[in-house]
Structure formats: C-alpha cells, structure tokens
Amino acid sequence: MQSAFSKKVRAIVGAIPKGETLSYGEIARRAGSAGAARAVGRVMAANFDPAIPCHRVVRADGAPGDYNRGGAERKRAILRAEQT
DNA sequence: ATAATGACGTGAT
DNA sequence: AATCACGCCATTA
C-alpha cells in the first residue's frame, strides 16, 4: 500500500487529457504538496503504474523527463497507455 | 529514527 | 546560453 501522495499522483497523471502535458511541479501542487516535484518523480519511479502515461508528464520547461529510463519495456507501457 | 537519493524547480554564477 | 548550487518533498536503504 502506497502513501496517499502516490495515489494522488497516480490519479492526477492518469487524469491528464490526451495531448496535454503536466509538469511535475503542477502535479505535486495538485497532489497537495507544492514544490514536491522531486517527490512526484520519485513516486513514479518507485511505484510506477502502467495506467499512468508518464510520457505526458514533463518538466516545468516542457522538456521530457527521464520517463524512458526503463527502455523498451517502458515504451511498450506507453504505447499501451496511448492505445486505451 | 537518521542519512542518502532522486523521473524537479528556481536562482545565481 | 550553459553550468553550479541550494531547496523542496517523498521514498528507500
């Protein structure tokens, strides 16, 4: 069972409209903890959920994060998420 | 419980 | 514009 923060993050990221991108800082803010951008990434990395389109999650500059750190496996998860 | 780490953010150099 | 440093919060060891 994960902390409430991770659950919020999962819900928020999973609620990102298709084509939209949300920054870690924004997510953290919606999660109830502004400035916890790092924590958000930490939650995903540690407890990543296949239903969470992390590729829609970007940095404050709009630059893509290290979401593909997993490699092909991660890419497959992204494709699956985009299929829906 | 404490220390260290990290898929970040902003400011300073 | 690029790089360095510090701060923020949550998770892991």
Relevant terms:
mainly alpha; two-stranded parallel sheet; 2 strands; globular; DNA-binding
General description of the model:
- With about 80 residues, the protein is mainly alpha-helical.
- The protein is about 50% helix and about 5% strand.
- The protein has four helices and two strands, in the order αβααβα.
- The protein has helices at about 5-15, 25-30, 35-45, 70-84, and strands at about 20-25, 55-60.
- A two-stranded parallel sheet has the order 1-2.
- Helix 1 packs across helix 2 (about 25-30) and helix 2 (about 25-30) crosses helix 3.
- The termini are far apart.
- The mean pLDDT is about 90.
- The structure holds a DNA duplex (13 and 13 nucleotides).
Rg, alpha carbons: 12 Å
Element order: H for helix, E for strand = HEHHEH
Q: Total number of β-strand segments?
A: 2
Beta-strand share of residues: under 5%
Structural class by helix and strand composition: mainly alpha
Rounded mean pLDDT is 88
For the terminal residues, how far apart are their CA atoms? 25 Å
Shape: globular
SSE layout and pairings?
Elements: H1 4-14, E1 22-23, H2 24-31, H3 37-46, E2 57-58, H4 72-83
Parallel strand pairs: 1-2
The chain binds a DNA duplex (13 and 13 nucleotides) through residues 2-3, 5-6, 23-25, 28, 33-48, 54, 57, 59-61, 64-69.
Brief digest:
The chain is mainly alpha-helical and 84 residues long. It is built from four helices and two strands. The radius of gyration is 12 Å and the shape is globular.
